[in-house]
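Box S1 | Example of a co-folding query
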Amino acid sequence: MPLGPAAITELKPVNAYIGLGANLGDPHRQLQEALAKLAAVEEVEVLKVSAFYLNPPLGPPEQPWYVNAVAQVRTRLEPEELLRALGQMERDLGRVRGERWGPRVIDLDLLLYDGVIMSGPELVLPHPEMHRRVFVLAPLAEIAPEAWHPVLEKTAAELLAELEATAAGVSTTRPGLRERF
Ligand code: A4P
Ligand code: MG
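Box S1 (continued) | Returned holo structure for magnesium ion
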């Protein structure tokens, strides 16, 4: 049967951005392993990876600092399929669900998926906290300053500049302590 226009559109790969974070075990290695797993998914191509940033924790303060990064991918997976794949990678890397904003061996968040806006029980797009987090926006703006937030209608670079100009952005992230390695 010939493919109709809808089917052809479905097959077209789209751009998505994935946030990676870890603060237990060997965070640097877990991020690298997560990136290798992502690249091994047949329907996912990793286009760009940011530097790895060392950040103080947002949430309970009595936990180690986080290593955070962002990856740009092209994928033919639907958003829910991509989220499920990320969840499987988290489990494979030994993630155990704990307290909200508590320490973790790996956290993989779907930040942006094409221009999709959705709010389902399992998946909210864009990621509802991304614009409030310098640890997300700094690596995102590094690899894709023009990445578009379809709800706020601003680029990653604009969101980062706004956040860094606010008291909240300074107090939660202490940019002077942020390192790249
Ligand atoms: N979910 C809905 N939308 C999404 C999406 N766009 N991407 C659902 C990923 N998941 C999404 O996630 C809970 C549920 O959110 C999932 O089942 C999924 O269906 P989770 O990661 O299992 O939950 P959590 O960790 O208990 O809470 P939360 O709020 O997701 O934690 P966060 O927001 O991921 O924050 N400090 C620094 N410096 N760096 C960090 O990376 N990370 C956290 C965790 C806290 N502090 C941090 C960092
Ligand atoms: Mg998460």
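Residues 5-125 form a domain with the Alpha-Beta Plaits fold (CATH 3.30.70.560). The longest helix spans residues 27-40.
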